[in-house]
Structures are given as structure tokens and as C-alpha cells.
Amino acid sequence: MQTTLRIGTPQKWWEKGLKENMREISSAQELVDSLTNAGDKLVVVDFFSPGCGGCKALHPKICQLAEQNPDAQFLQVNYEEHKSMCYSLGVHVLPFFRFYRGAHGRVCSFSCTNATIKKFRDALAKHSPDRCSLGPTKGLEEKELVALAANKELNFSYTPKAVPVEEEEAPVPASKPGLPVPHPSMSANDEKTLVSAGR
């Protein structure tokens, strides 16, 4: 008779205490799809790192708040596994949270700890009332989608929405002799970028 002894892998701290409305995101596409398909639900995106003490300490309270708010969806993004995606989304401090809701898209974002958990509770109370937002679900902002698509490390593609072009030509600014004249479609910010890029 043979007996097989299996030693299971211990559960990681961010997997403990998860509620039905909590799940970990595995890709940029899954994040975009989850936000787009959430309808009018409040979606809380929790950016965490396995080595972050503040994230670990806050996790049980986030699980408790998820249980108290079963109509909200809680998505976890592991910073260590998705650094490139986090950089593209401008997440540079942990623990970090973004709240999204229906046609409004992102309604708030902030970092908090156990000491400032009231900020999280207040955001839940403010953005999860039983009112609907009219129109299609917005999800990530256009600039975030473009940043994710531009990131070559991510397997994510996105076609930017077409922006209507005005028919009128902008006046050509006067130039001093010997200086280049900027193209009429170039904004002042473009000009500054071109100047600083030459250094």
C-alpha cells in the first residue's frame, strides 16, 4: 500500500479572507474588461504588493468592507506581477485605490493606511448610493487606455477614439527673423516639448 503525502502551498496573505465580490486581476485586458462590464456597479481597484507591510495590515479591513458592500466589485492588482501596467496607470505609491462607477468612470483615487481607513469608508459611502449613472460604462480614461496600449511589455491593444478636426486654419504666429515658424497645428506645449527634447 502506497501513501502519498502532499504538502500544500500556504495561502498568501492577499488570498486570505477574500469575499465573493473580490478577485485578483491577471492582465491589463482583464482590468479593462472588468471595468467595462461592471455596468453601474461601484468598482474598487486595490493596487498592492506582497512585500508592502501597509497593504498586508490593511487587507483584513478591505475584506470586511467588501463583505459589508456586496454590490461593489473589488479588484486586486499585484504590483510585483504587473509593475509595467501600474507604471502606465500612474500608480507609484502603495497601498493605492481607484474607485470607478458606471458612466462617470473614475470617481476618485487615493492612498490610505489603517490610520486613514476613514478615507476609504467615506469614498465607499459617497460613491455607492443606489442611484444610477446614465450612459454606457466608461471604465478607464482615454489617456490611461492609450498609455496601456503604448506599453510594449503589455499584451494590450487599443484604438484611440477619433477626434473631430476643425476646418478653420489657425493663424500662423509671427516670427522673428532667423527663428523657425511653428506649424499652425502645433500647440504651445508641443513647441516646449520640441525645445526641451533637443538638449
Give a concise summary.
The chain is of the alpha/beta class. It has helices at 28-36, 53-68, 83-88, 117-127, 142-150, 188-197, and strands spanning 22-24, 42-48, 73-78, 96-101, 105-111.
How would you describe what is shown here?
By secondary structure, the protein is an alpha/beta fold. It is built from six helices and five strands. Helix 2 (53-68) links the parallel strand 2 (42-48) and strand 3 (73-78). It has a five-stranded mixed beta sheet, covered by helices on one side. The radius of gyration is 23 Å and the shape is globular. The model is unreliable at 175-199 (pLDDT under 50). The protein has a domain at 13-150: Glutaredoxin (3-Layer(aba) Sandwich), CATH 3.40.30.10.
